[in-house]
Specification:
rod-shaped; 1 helix; mainly alpha
Length: about 60
C-alpha cells in the first residue's frame, strides 16, 4: 500500500522506522543462526556421548 505524499521530515521519520525494522530483522536472523549453531554443537556432543556409552557396553 502506497503512503500519501508527506513533508520531508515525515519522510525521514518513515525512513528511520524502515531502517530500524531492517536492523531488527537482521538481528533476529543473527540470533536464530547463533541458536542453530548452538543446537548443532549440543547435538554433536550428545552423539559423542552416545558413542562413548556404546563403546563402554552400556545401552541407552
Amino acid at each position: 500500500m502506497a503512503r500519501p505524499a508527506a513533508a520531508p521530515e515525515q519522510q525521514q521519520e518513515w525512513g528511520e522506522e524502515e531502517q530500524h525494522r531492517h536492523d531488527l530483522r537482521r538481528d533476529v536472523g543473527t540470533q536464530q543462526a547463533e541458536r542453530v549453531d548452538g543446537l548443532h554443537e549440543v547435538s554433536q556432543e550428545l552423539e559423542e556421548k552416545e558413542e562413548e556409552y556404546r563403546i563402554d557396553g552400556c545401552a541407552l
